Each structure stands twice: as structure tokens, then as C-alpha cells.
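Input chain follows. Return C-alpha cells only.
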Amino acid sequence: MAARFQQLGAFIGSTMQKHLWPIADQGLIAAASFVTIVFIARGLSIEEFGAYTLVYSLIYFASSMQASLITQPHNVLGAIRKGEDYVRYTTATAVGQVALATGSALLALGAGAVARVFGWEVAPILFAAAPAMFAWQMQEFVRRVLYTENRILAAFVNDLLAYGAQVFLIAVLWHQEILTASAALYVLAGTCALSTVLGCWQLRASVCRSFDRAMLWENWHFGKWVAGGTIVGEWLSAQMLVFIAAAMLGAAAAGVLRAIHTLFGPARILAQVFSITLPTRLARALADEGPEAFQVHLRQTLLVAIPVLGSYCMLVAALAKPLLQLVFGEKYQEYNWVLVLYAASAFLTYLWMIGTAVLRAQRLTRPIFISEVIYLFIVPLGALLIPLWGIHGLVVGLIAGDIAALVYVVWAHLRCTTDADIVRQDLLDTNLAGVRAEGALR
């Protein structure tokens, strides 16, 4: 028994060492995001922070489309390309990224113009969201390409510039008591733009002056189901519930959920590490070593991920009330039971993220879309529960959706694995029969 524990400890240690820079990078982002949100939440009223959260959700939506159509395809399809083929593919992907970021920014400007015409108070925040959308997407593209190239230290340096400067400037604005929602978004835009300039230099050898449009279509065919799943499952369900809650309970509800979400930043470090690095690593293992190596890498990941993520979520739930008071102040401590429920939803979401990363490595993006469609049923459920239990009902709806989506993802992976085993066995039986027939003829 002691020997088994020693082997498990050695495995965990080697896994953490292998992912040292990815963990450090995601830790930097999580820590910077945590500190930034704390400053903004403390500097604004709950209602103002709620309005900031709703606009920030639109920025995050654009980033989700980027991940589905640009960066996730590059992490998988780019990982198996070499030399000039990789450079031309990365160039084509960069062109698609610029087009997507520009379109997102123009839509935000249009929304800001409409809000100004109708005299809505959210107009300045929407105008600030436009440059933030563009710059954030470009910086994220740089770092994710660096991940594809396994240049994690370079990605860390790039993120250190972006997020370090962001924390510093937000802290200065908060200390001077001039921090507003719009100012926070302009800081995000400026720091990400600065980091993108550095990224252009870092990737100077990864792009060229020509590209093949067919490569853009390849990204589209890979990412269309992921993008559709993101729209249907996340934004027409989970995020839609947040907007419904804000409409029914006030903008403060969105602010509370954002504050609670922030407390899980450390757990999202590992979840994001797995979500970003796992598809590339598993895709290479499957292509170079076969399905058995694929399963070995997956089991090793789960042995680390499930205990660590589960322990963190349980700890946050146990310390819900003092954590809210310590981090965000007394105005948030009454929402401790919301945090307890949200901890369960967060853990299920992290498991689903790992599951979808596995499916992406297998190029099974259609089941990801279906899992998101399954998630849709929480919208009417959550809408019914909000009048009964308030914001608590919304989180209960999230938990129900998390369970349903996770069960389907696990089933899809197991079915694919079983089908592959059947095909391999059929081929083996066919080859064996051919050998026997040839021997009989001789």
C-alpha cells in the first residue's frame, strides 16, 4: 500500500512538473483576474458592478466565438502541421482572427450608438467594450498560438505584461477613487493591445505573406459544432439565465454571480490548463502512439484533476460566508448559500470542460454541440425557479444542466472508444483469417 502511495505521489509530482509553466501561466491570469474583479467590485456599487458584468459577458461571448472558431482549431489542427505548411496555416488563422475581432468591435460600437440614442446609461460601457473586445481577442490569439508551438514560457511573458499592467492600473484608479466600469474596460483594451504588439514580435517566424483560404474552411468545419454548442448551451442557457435573473431581480443579481464566480479562480487554473493543453497532447498521442497511449494520458489527467478540483470546491463551500465577507465586504455575505450551491455547479462544469477537451482531441465536435443543446433545458427550469427561490433557484438550474451535459459527454466518449475497439478487433480478425487461409492454401 505504501509503495502505491509513493508511485501516485511520484506521478502527481511528474505531472505537475510537466505542466509547471502552463500552471504558472494560468495562475497568473487567474490571480490577475481575481484581484481586478475584487478592486472593481469594491469600487462600484452592487448595481453598477452588475451592469459592468452584463457588458463584460458580451465581451466574453465574443471571446468564446474566438475560442471555438480560431484558437481551439489551431491548438488541434496546428499541432500536427510542420514547417511551411504550419506557417501558412497559422497565417490563414490569423487573418480569420483579425476579421472576427474587427466584426465584434463594430457590433459593440453599434450597440453603444443605439444605447446613446435611447438614452440608456449603459452606452459609455458599450463604447468602451469595443476596443476591449478587439484587443483581448488579439492577445488571446497570440498566447494560444504560442501554446500550440509549446512555447509556454513565451506565453507566460506575454501574459505577464498584459495582466500585470492591468492589475497595476486598476489598482491605481481604485486608490484614486476614480475607477468606473468604462475606465476598467479601457484599461483592459490598452494592456492587451500592448501585449499584442509583443506577441507580433514573438510570432514573427510563424506567419508569412501568403495563405490558403481552404485552411480557413478547415477551421470552420472543425469549430462550427463547438461554436454552435457555445451559442446554444452556454449563451442561450447559462448566460441567458443571468440576463433573465438581472431582468427579474435587478442588475445586482449579475454582480453577485460574478463576484461568486471570481472565488473559483484558483480552480479554473487547472481546469483551463487541462482545457487548453489536453486536446493538443491527446491528439499527438493518438496520432503518434495510438489509442492505448491516448487512454493512458487521459487516466493520468483524471487522477490529478478530480481530487484537486473537488477539494477546492468543497473548501470554498465550507468557508462560504467568511470568504464573501473577507474578499468583497459585508454587502455580499448574505449570499453565502448561493456560493455553496455554485461550488457544486463549478465542479461539474470543470469535469465537463475536461470531457469536451477529450472529445476535441478525438475531433468529435458534434457531440460537444449536442451536450450544449441538452443544457438548454435549464432555461425554462431556471426561469420557473427564480420566482420561487430567487437567485438560489438560478444556481439550482445550472446544476441540473451541468449534470445532464456531463453525462452525455462521458457517454459520447465511451461510445467512441467502444466503436474504435470493435473496428480494431474486426480488422484483427480479418487479418488473422487471411493469414490462416493463406497457410491452408500452402
